[in-house]
Write a structure and sequence with these properties.
alpha+beta; Beta-Lactamase; Arc Repressor Mutant, subunit A; 3 domains; 5-stranded antiparallel beta sheet; 4-stranded mixed beta sheet; disordered N terminus; disordered C terminus
């Protein structure tokens, strides 16, 4: 038959915290027992939604302190400049129009954060803002899972979909009196994650309607961004290749998902706008020196059929239109000294599964430049974002740098990780750069 908790978990939508008509008090009791069991024994009991259980495990691996609070990373002056230039600043009027009355009447808060879960705007009911301030749910604070544990904006950004978090589903105890629902917001053209919209309040938010509402607000924000920044037309093209094995090319009003080989070709050509000869392109694409020009010509013929002759030129092989790339944006941010912005744009290694020599070289160069800049900056929050990412979890220099800049009371976990990596790689090994990362 199963327990009441088992039956409730089966009946509830996995992304909604409490089904309509559910007993909030009983659900809180189930979650508090499960939470205490997890924090003491490290095991997740029945009745905890999978999205929450996985987030708890990530939070524990990141050594998030259950009694801790989010840290404020952007001071007033820095916050004002940063959010003024953030893409989501352009859609705040729409977000306010849709959520203002809902927040004030329901004694809720509306928060908008960037892709690193730093709160850029926190607005709504005055009393709720004062109470939320006691747990640092304030503008400038970072609520990423890696530092604040399970919470709606941080978890929504991690899993890249709308999420509701209720009561003791939050990983940090000071947040467990709250319920929140958040939805990610993406660039409507490139698909890049820009941040999230969050609604935070009491137990009344633990309802499917609040999750659907915040999702609708996020979609409205994306629609408004599309109106304010129309898709580039004519000669402009956009290439997204960070953190994905199949690049996305937006050109001439079309959105094309490229095959892995075509992704490698377009990345190499985008990086070398002057073009390459057939022999040069062979060296950039193939590890096997026995691959013949005939093979390359066949591949280029298939790519030309996909893109059209207006986009792909020959003699030399080149992209015939300007291409704005996400990896190029990271490079430009680094060149201007905007390290935080560069990290925000970096959504993962360039075509991580590619073994093409030209792609691998560019991938390593970009990664090394960003890591070096982060270490030089010495910002604990930025270094933690890198170290706790899938591509930074094995990066020994980054973990050493993080351990060096953390306050003494928070240093042990980073030191332990750095020591473990040091033992794993041994003397003379290349730290943290094996496999697809």
């Amino acid at each position: 038959m199963g327990t009441d908790a088992d039956r409730e978990a089966e009946l509830t939508d996995p992304w909604v915290a409490l089904e309509p008509g559910g007993d909030a008090g009983r659900r809180v009791d189930v979650l508090r027992r499960a939470y205490e069991h997890f924090t003491t024994a490290g095991r997740v009991e029945a009745g905890v939604r999978p999205v929450v259980a996985e987030s708890w495990r990530r939070s524990a691996r990141a050594r998030v302190a259950p009694e801790g609070r989010a840290s404020v990373e952007l001071g007033d002056d820095e916050l004002a400049v940063y959010r003024e230039g953030h893409p989501l600043s352009r859609v705040m009027p729409v977000i306010r129009e849709l959520t203002g009355a809902y927040a004030v009447d329901g004694e809720h808060l509306v928060a908008v954060c960037d892709a690193q879960a730093r709160l850029l705007w926190v607005e709504g009911h005055r009393g709720a803002r004062e109470r939320a301030g006691r747990m640092n749910f304030v503008e400038g604070a970072r609520w990423a899972e890696a530092v604040a544990g399970t919470n709606a904006p941080g978890t929504a950004l991690t899993v890249d979909r709308p999420v509701q978090v209720f009561s003791a589903e939050h990983f940090q105890r000071p947040v467990q009196e709250w319920t929140c629902a958040a939805a990610p917001v993406h660039d409507p053209h490139s698909g890049r994650l820009l941040g999230a919209v969050d609604i935070t309040g009491g137990n009344r938010l633990a309802h499917p309607h609040s999750l659907a509402f915040v999702g609708a607000v996020a979609r409205a924000a994306e629609s408004q961004l599309a109106l304010l920044s129309p898709r580039p037309s004519g000669d402009a093209a956009q290439l997204t290749a960070l953190g994905r094995d199949e690049a996305l090319l937006v050109a001439e009003g079309r959105k094309l998902r490229l095959s892995r080989r075509h992704s490698e070709i377009v990345v190499v050509l985008a990086h070398r706008p002057e073009g390459l000869s057939g022999d040069e392109l062979l060296l950039e694409l193939y590890e096997d020196e026995h691959i013949t020009p005939v093979t390359l010509r066949a591949e280029m013929s298939r790519l030309r059929a996909l893109l059209g002759p207006r986009l792909l030129g020959s003699r030399p092989y080149r992209l015939a239109v300007p291409v704005d790339t996400d990896f190029g944006t990271v490079g430009r941010r680094l060149a201007s000294g905007a390290v935080a912005a560069a990290l925000g744009e970096y959504t993962g290694p360039l075509l991580p599964a590619s073994r093409a020599p030209g792609v691998a070289r560019l991938r390593e160069q970009l990664r090394d430049q960003l890591r070096t800049a982060l270490i030089a900056r010495g910002d604990p929050g930025l270094l933690a974002d890198w170290a706790y990412s899938p591509w930074g979890e094995g990066d020994l220099p980054a973990w050493r740098a993080l351990a060096a800049v953390l306050p003494e009371g928070r240093r042990a976990a980073a030191q332990a990780r750095a020591s473990a990596l040091d033992r794993e790689y041994g003397n003379g090994a290349r730290a943290g750069f094996g496999g697809r990362w």
